[in-house]
Design goal:
Elements: H1 2-7, H2 11-22, H3 26-38, H4 41-46, H5 53-69, E1 73-79, H6 85-101, E2 104-111, H7 139-145, E3 150-154, H8 157-167, E4 171-176, H9 181-187, E5 198-206, H10 219-230, E6 234-238, H11 242-245, E7 257-262
Parallel strand pairs: 1-2, 1-4, 2-3, 4-5
Antiparallel strand pairs: 5-7, 6-7
Helix pairs in contact: 5-6, 9-10
């Protein structure tokens, strides 16, 4: 209860409630009350009733794709842990997803442990972010808070990502919250391993893409553009028509969701065993 009370003291929470929820049709908000009381986990994810909506949606979708591919265990990654609220929440949500889907998770957070490094040039948005921002104040306490299937890797991503990739399980979900262009570029090297290290589609959340002065030439958006230009078999694209598929369509988080397409994955080359036939009601 104290956590919820603390959240409700934040101005941006009330702004989002006003813009993203209250402005939606009354019948959807009334239905949300019933879903919150009686609904299943899946229905609560559909109604954006699980804390940190993109994590809930992303982990559940990744688990469903894993089941489709016959994979029983996947890795979920957070780049940019800071004080760890998102990582702890990811662990909690992943446990609920496991109960629903049967898919197990390994959860890994990457962080320098000392906050952001100095920006390198204008592409890092130095007007918005600076060295030392978002430090991890109590890494030992945070690690103790995590379940056995979760861990934190401290250090510069450029130095820690390669050793991690050598031993990781199938990657299915990635959250990128490192603000800088150059830090995002280093984080996206997580997509450069052989295809068996991934699901054919890796769901991705990019935190720093929504502000009015972010643009495709700086920050995470520029890193996505440059990654796509430099890789032929791996492309990062927006999640197609996700907004139209959601019940609460004004939710901002929808614009943060992307998919990394692993084009050289064997699953994407196999032949289907069934034939699709369209119905014609006029015959």
């Amino acid at each position: 209860m104290s956590f919820l009370t603390n959240r409700l003291t934040k101005g941006h929470i009330w702004r989002r409630i006003g813009i993203e929820r209250i402005s939606e049709p009354v019948h959807l908000n009334l239905a949300s009350v019933l879903v919150a009381i009686f609904g299943s986990f899946r229905s609560k994810v559909s109604f954006d009733l699980i804390l940190r909506h993109p994590l809930a949606f992303g982990l559940l979708q990744a688990a469903d794709w894993a089941n489709e591919c016959g994979v029983r265990r996947i890795t979920a990654i957070e780049f940019g842990v800071a004080n760890g609220a998102g990582l702890v929440n990811m662990c909690s949500v992943a446990a609920r997803v496991t109960r629903v889907t049967g898919i197990d998770f390994d959860i890994v957070g990457f962080d320098t442990g000392v906050g952001m490094p100095p920006p390198k040039d204008y592409r890092d948005h130095p007007e918005f972010y600076g060295p030392g921002d978002f430090p991890m104040e109590n890494p030992n306490d945070l690690q103790k808070k995590l379940p056995p299937n979760a861990r934190i890797i401290l250090g510069e991503v450029a130095n820690t990502i390669v050793p991690f990739l050598q031993n990781c399980e199938t990657i299915g979900f990635i959250s990128v919250d490192v603000d800088y262009y150059h830090s995002t570029i280093e984080s996206l090297k997580v997509l450069e391993s052989p295809p068996h290290k991934y699901l054919p589609w890796v769901l991705m959340y990019f935190d720093d893409v929504e502000y009015d002065r972010h643009n495709p030439f700086c920050g995470e958006l520029a890193a996505i553009e440059d990654f796509n230009r430099e890789h032929s078999n791996r492309k990062i694209a927006k999640f197609n028509v996700l907004r139209q598929r959601r019940i609460f369509q004004r939710a901002t988080w929808i614009e943060h969701m992307y998919i990394a397409h692993v084009f050289d994955h064997p699953f994407r080359s196999r032949q289907r065993n069934r034939k699709e036939v369209l119905d014609n009601p006029f015959l």
